[in-house]
Amino acid sequence: MFGFKENTTNQCIYLKASGSQFVIIVLYVDDILLASSRVELLTETKFMLNNHFDMMDLGDASVVLGIQFFVTGLVAFLDGLRKDTLILKV
Fold first, then answer.
1. Of 30, 65, 68, 85, which residue is the least packed, with the fewest Cβ within 10 Å?
2. How does DSSP assign 22-40, residue by residue?
3. Where are the domains of the chain?
4. Any idea what DSSP says for residue 59?
5. Average of pLDDT values for 16-28?
6. What is the pLDDT of residues 37-83, one digit of tens each?
7. How far is 9 from 7, CA to CA, in rounded Å?
């Protein structure tokens, strides 16, 4: 898929890497999460995907599958599961 290699363990994750530079695509139902070592690679990937698919950029992710992200400068942190997204079985 456009030079990306599918993860053998999880078929929803795709990686394109060259040296220390990478782009990761994570697919979940009708959402796409992109991560990259460089903003330019991220922009190129968004442009390429937008040329092949009907897409809308929703901006930076703050919560994905109940995991909260914090971005400070060039570093992103995961804050574990948010309490308000947990579903408890009784």
1. 30
2. EEEEEEETTEEEEEESSHH
3. 1-58, 60-90
4. -
5. 91
6. 888 998 999 999 999 989 888 888 777 777 777 777 666 655 555 55
7. 6
